Amino acid sequence: MSTVLLPGATLGVLGNGQLGRMFALAARRMGYRVATFGPGTGTPAGQVCDLEVDADYRDEQALRAFARQVEAVTFEFENVPAEAGELLAEHVPVRPRETVLHIAQNRWREKTWLRDQGFPVGDFATVESEAALVDALERLGTPAVLKTAGFGYDGKGQALIRTPADAAGAWQAIGGQAAVLEAFVDFHMEVSVVAARGTDGSFAHYGVFENRHRDHILDVTLPDAPVGPQLREQAEDIARGILEALGVVGVLCVEFFVASDGRLLVNELAPRPHNSGHLTFDASLSSQFEQQVRAVAGLPLGDTRLLRPAAMVNLLGDLWQDGEPDWAAALADGQTKLHLYGKANAKPGRKMGHLTAFGDDREDAARRALAARERLRGGGGHR
Ligand SMILES: Nc1ncnc2c1ncn2[C@@H]1O[C@H](COP(=O)(O)OP(=O)(O)O)[C@@H](O)[C@H]1O
Ligand SMILES: [Mg+2]
């Protein structure tokens, strides 16, 4: 039905951050041309694309011009206005389709959709006013987490509510806007499944990753989360069910909590490659970015097997606070790979790059990755 876009074709990506950069690197390696669209020049993606369009996502004229320059469009950033996806879809295939973007960019719609489809989610309520928040707190109890419906990432737009007395402060802290209130999940592990679906409905996934967070930001990812075969299968089945129900063509990541009572709960969706899948770039036969290229181009998906035990650690801007990190020291372990995103300003909490390390087993790889990051600070540094 859909035509295959062969190497030489130009793939468009909405967004110009690190996910677009790694998509472009994978695509160009396979001989595609890549164009990025988003505000700014010299961006992480723009640096490695054939074309960097500096425009606002609401600029219809620029979007139309972009549509004429590309043969398919994907995105690396879900907070693109859904109208941009709709407009582009009138001219070129948008993969995943704009409905996926519409649902996944808004926690309210996403959580409601997941629940209505029968996927397991924790207790939540949608709230539009402080009064509604007070009511919802009565039903859900405390602690609870209040999250803005739109534009949240890396824990931004969230407020923890410890007691009902925190309601007013939390409502103000998130800017008094449409939000989702979630019961606090007492979890013993956070895991994710990065999966891909092709134009022919084929499905591939990378198993279950274990994600360790720090200050609500992903810190370390290890493959093969120790969750037991039953939970692993359940997580993979849920991921498949979600990609199929949404009709995703592309890559989508499902973030889960493994609750202390053993339940597996979906936390959120990311309709694109995900930070927890970065280790696939070096450690898997086909990376999550190559899968995105293959899916968007209508090619068969690649084999996802892990070639060797690996672990990923993020490099945040905090590492720059005493000057340029000691890259040579980090790379002294030859089993460590450095990825930097080409961002000029290192701000605390900003994702600047990551390290992937290999090892004899997953924990050995994680130790090597953490040790390499420690050496970046000249050995003696700490947060
Ligand atoms: N309901 C919850 N219960 C417990 N911890 C939570 C809850 N919601 C979020 N968190 C913590 O905050 C992190 C970030 O929240 P998340 O909803 O994934 O937002 P985002 O990743 O978009 O910032 C989660 O990975 C988890 O560690
Ligand atoms: Mg998250």
TrEMBL record:
A Pfam family matched in the record: PurK_C
Annotated residues for binding of ATP: 107, 147, 152-158, 182-185, 190, 213, 267-268
Listed GO CC annotations: cytosol
Substrates-to-products reaction catalysed: 5-amino-1-(5-phospho-beta-D-ribosyl)imidazole + hydrogencarbonate + ATP = 5-carboxyamino-1-(5-phospho-D-ribosyl)imidazole + ADP + phosphate + 2 H(+)
Pathway the protein contributes to: Purine metabolism; IMP biosynthesis via de novo pathway; 5-amino-1-(5-phospho-D-ribosyl)imidazole-4-carboxylate from 5-amino-1-(5-phospho-D-ribosyl)imidazole (N5-CAIR route): step 1/2
The UniProt record lists the keyword ATP-binding: yes
GO molecular function terms attached to this record: 5-(carboxyamino)imidazole ribonucleotide synthase activity; ATP binding; metal ion binding; phosphoribosylaminoimidazole carboxylase activity
GO biological process: 'de novo' IMP biosynthetic process
EC number: 6.3.4.18
Alphabetic keyword roster: ATP-binding, Ligase, Nucleotide-binding, Purine biosynthesis
Residues covered by the ATP-grasp domain: 111-297
Enzyme class per UniProt: ligase
Protein family membership: Belongs to the PurK/PurT family.
General function of this protein: Catalyzes the ATP-dependent conversion of 5-aminoimidazole ribonucleotide (AIR) and HCO(3)- to N5-carboxyaminoimidazole ribonucleotide (N5-CAIR).
Subunit structure of this chain's protein: Homodimer.
Protein name: N5-carboxyaminoimidazole ribonucleotide synthase
Species this chain originates from: Alkalispirillum mobile
